[in-house]
Amino acid sequence: MAVNFFSDAIVNGSLTVTSGTSGDATLIISADTDNSEEADSPRLWFKADGDITQGAIQHNDNTFDFISNVSANGGFRFLTGTTNNTGTTDPSNGATERVSIDSTGMTISGSIQLGHASDTTIARSAAGKVTIESAPIQTTQICTTHHNMSLDSSSSTSDFYFPINSLADGSSSGLYYTRIVSAYAGKIVKILIKPSSAMGSSCKIYMSRRDHDNASTFHQTSGFQAEETFDGSGSVTTKIIPCGVGGTNAADWVFDEGDMLGFSIVKNTTSSSVDLAVTIVYEYTMS
Q1: Residues 167-172: what's their mean pLDDT?
Q2: Distance between CA atoms of 265 and 196, rounded to whole angstroms?
Q3: Longest Cα separation, the chain
Q4: 172 pairs with which residues across the strands?
Q5: What pLDDT is attached to residue 68?
Q6: pLDDT at position 84, please?
Q7: 73-77, 165-169, 235-239: lowest mean pLDDT where?
Q8: Which residue spans within 75-126 are E strands per DSSP?
C-alpha cells in the first residue's frame, strides 16, 4: 500500500514505520527523481526550542551532511551501551558517551583501536599524555645535559656551579661554568645526581635564569629563580630531584626561549671529596 501526499503534511505525535512480523521496514526520502536539478536534495530536519532548526541530516550535491547548528551547547554525541531498551524507552537509557564533537573539536572517551585490533590501542593516560600499547608518546621535546663535577671545598654553604667538564672549583667563575641557552620555552622536569659519597640530609639545588634580553652572561649569586631541597645522605644511590614536575616549587622551574640558565648545588657536609655525575632533564614546548 502506498500513501501519497501531494502537499505538506503534519503528523501530530509519533510516526511509526513497521513491517510487522516479516520483512524490512524502510523509510525512503527521495528528491530529484529525474536527475535534472542537483540543488534538489533529500533532507531530514530537526527542530526544537521554539521552532529553531537545530540539526539536519541531508544531501548537498551528492555529499551527505550531518549538521548541528545552534547558538549554545550544540554538537554531536555518539553513545553506546548494552541495555536492551524496549517499547517507548529512550534508547539513551543505559548508554555512555564515547565520542563528542562540538565547536571546539572532538573528544574521544576511552581508547582507539587500530584495525579492529584490541592489542593496538591509542589512549590518554593523563593530562597531555598519550600512550600506544601503554607506552608513552612524548608530546613535547625532551633534552638532557650531562655534567661531571668535584665538590672539592669543605664548605657546606657555598654554591658549586655545574661545570662544563670535571672542574674542581667552588666558585661561580662565569667563563668556566655551564651556562645553557634554552632553544625553546619550557621547564626543568627533574635533575638526577649520582654522588661518590654522602652529601648530607638537607642539600639544595638552584636554577638561575637570565632573561634573553639581559646583558649579563654570568650566574646570579643570589635571588635564584628556582630551588629544591633534597636528602643527599645515606647510600650513594642516584638522587632523583623532582623540579618542574612534582617539585615543591614546580612553578618556578620554567624559562623562555633564549633565556640563559645556570645550575648550582649546596651540599650539607664538610667533606671535600664528593664527586658528582649529573643529568638535567628539560622539556621544551615546541611552537
Answers
A1: 48
A2: 15
A3: 102
A4: none
A5: 93
A6: 92
A7: 165-169
A8: 76-80, 96-102, 105-108, 112-114, 117-126
Structurally, the chain folds into a number of domains equal to 2
Question: Residues 215, 241: contact at Cβ < 8 Å?
Answer: no
CB 258 within 8 A of CB 182: yes
Kindly tell me the sign of the dihedral angle through the C-alpha atoms of 198, 201, 202, 205: positive
Query: Do 55 and 174 have their domain in common?
Result: no
Where in the sequence is the domain holding 31, given as residue range(s)? Answer: 1-74
Q: Which residues pair with 209 in a beta bridge?
A: 261
Answer with the one of 57, 74, 91 that is the final residue of a domain.
74
Predicted confidence (pLDDT) at residue 171 exceeds the cutoff of 60? no
Spatial separation of the C-alpha atoms in residues 45 and 56, rounded to whole Å: 4
pLDDT digits (tens, 9 = 90+) for 182-211: 888 999 999 999 998 999 999 999 888 877
Question: Of 74, 102, 133, which residue is a domain's last?
Answer: 74
The pLDDT score that the predictor gives to residue 242 is 96
| Distant-in-sequence, close-in-space partners of 14: CB < 8 Å, separation ≥ 6 | none
First to last CA, the chain: 65
Query: Could you tell me if residue 98 is inside a domain?
Result: no
Locate cell 639545588: which residue?
205
For residue 287, what are the contacts with CB-CB under 8 A and spacing of at least 6? 184, 185
3-state secondary structure of 147: strand
Whole-model pTM: value is 0.55
**In terms of DSSP H, where are the helices of the chain?**
none
Q: Which domain CATH number covers 267?
A: 2.60.120
